[in-house]
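Reminder to self: tokens first, then the designed residues, so the page reads top to bottom the way the pipeline ran.
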């Protein structure tokens, strides 16, 4: 049974930083592309960032470029999202996701976590 468990969400002031992480189990982590998506209040879920199975390539939504950094530690089956210069519009539930290909990590991952809330106050 595949499990993706996010942690590290919380409340932060605008301009601050926050890091969220996702621990994976039940899959061969090193063979999966990993991604982060988010769902702002009242909006659709959207892609934020993705990373190749070996960490060699990363992908970012325009809203995340230059502020967010995705990374992974295959020895710990964990993927991270470091978020800097946070804005109120970054407020959302952040979801971890796993996929077997670059295309699907950007659009339709196979596995999802339960999400962690990030709130940015102005």
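Designed residues (122 positions):
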């Amino acid at each position: 049974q595949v499990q993706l468990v996010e942690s590290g969400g919380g409340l932060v002031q605008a301009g601050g930083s926050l890091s969220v992480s996702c621990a994976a189990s039940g899959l061969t982590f090193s063979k999966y592309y990993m991604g982060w998506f988010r769902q702002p209040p009242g909006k659709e879920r959207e892609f934020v960032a993705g990373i190749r199975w070996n960490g060699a390539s990363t992908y970012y939504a325009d809203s995340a470029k230059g502020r967010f950094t995705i990374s992974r530690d295959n020895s710990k089956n964990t993927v991270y999202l470091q978020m800097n210069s946070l804005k109120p519009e970054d407020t959302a539930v952040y979801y971890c996701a796993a996929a077997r290909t670059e295309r699907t990590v950007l659009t339709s991952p196979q596995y999802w976590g339960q999400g962690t809330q990030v709130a940015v106050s102005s």
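DSSP finds one helix and eleven strands in the chain.
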